[in-house]
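Morning run. Coffee first, then this:
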Amino acid sequence: MTLDTAYRILRLQADATQSELVSAYRKLVKRYHPDYNSSRHEWSHNAMTKINLAYELVSGDLLERTQHVATEPRVDQSKWRFGDDIAEAFSQSPAEDPAFVALFDQAADLVLTGIYTYYQYGLHNVYLRYEGVRRFRYRTAVRRVKQGLEQLRDMQHLASAGLHQDQLLAFSEFAAAFLRNMLIDKYHAPSVNRSENGAYRHYFEGSESLDAVIRAELFEELKPLHASDSVAGGLKVSYHEFMSLLINHSKSDWIPETLVKLQLHEAFTRVAALRAGA
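And here it is:
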C-alpha cells in the first residue's frame, strides 16, 4: 500500500494532523470493525486490515514530519529577485491598488516558496523525490504551489488595469505550468531501443538547461548560471533539445512530458520578458 492510498483510505488530506488521524480512524473502526458487522465478518475483517495498515503508514509519516518540521529552513525572501520585480511592476501601475498588490504578494510567496523547496532539495530529480524527508518536502512544495495558484486565480476579477491583467495572467500561467512540471513522475529505464535512449537524452538536457535558468532567475543563491551563460542562451538550448525530441523521435514515450516542459518554457519566457521590461 502506498502512502497516498493510505491517506485516501482514511479520507485525510496530505497535511492532516495527529488528532485528525485518530478521529478518522475511530470513525472507520465504528463502521467497519467486525464487532459492528456480525453478518459480514470476512468483509469487515478485510476492511479493517486495510484500515489498520493505512493507519500505521500515515502515523509513521506524521511522526517523520514532526521530527523534521523543526529543521524546516527559513527561506530568505529578500533574495527572490523575480517575485520582488513582479510585485514592483504592480505597484508602479497607474491604477495602483495596495490591496491588490498585497494579495498578489501573498499568492506569489506561496508559489515561490514551493518552487524554492522543490529546487533546494533536488526534487526535480524523480529518483530522489520519495526518499526519507524529501517525500515530505515534495508534498509540501506541491501543496504550496497549488495554494498560491488558487489564490492567483481568485484574483482574476480584481485585475482591472491592463498591466495588472498582463502580469497576473503571466504569473498565473507560469505557476500552473510549473505545477504540471512538478507532477511529472516518470522514470527513465535504459532501453535497447537506441531511439528511445536518444529521446531521453534530449529530454534530460533540455530539462537541465530550463531548470538552471529558472533557478538562476528566481533564486540566484541556489545555482547561479556560469559567467558565460545567459538566460536567453539557456532558454534557447532547452527549446532546441525539446524540439529535437519532438521532430526526431515523434513516437517516443517522452512526448507528453516534453510538451509539459515546452509549456513551462513558454510561460517562463513570457514572465521573464515582463520582468525585464518592468
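The CA atoms of residues 16 and 62 lie 8 Å apart. Good start to the day.
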